[in-house]
Task: structure prediction
Amino acid sequence: MIDENSAAAGIQRSLRQCISHMAALLYRHGHVLETVTVPHRGLDRGAIQHLSQASNDWATCQQVLERSEAASYNESGRFVLTALGRELLFDMFGSGAADCA
Result:
């Protein structure tokens, strides 16, 4: 029998690892956290392709974020964090990490 608490903890740990990895990749490739935290911005297909080529882990993290509903695509088809993803990011890095003014 699977312990729901340990399964939830494992999912949250995986999400946190992906968010941390995503933040580092964004920084290394000239993006800022606001790129994915401001709902009307987001990463376009070209940026996602560039990040996928730069890191073998990007695609896996992107899938984890999407499947957990921590990320999705906005009206413009750009990859952004959802309220859940932003909450985790701000919990990890502080609310000033990506000012959404």
Q: What stands out?
A: Residues 70 and 83 are 7 Å apart (CA to CA). The mean pLDDT is 86. The beta strands are 71-73, 79-81. The first helix runs from residue 4 to 28.
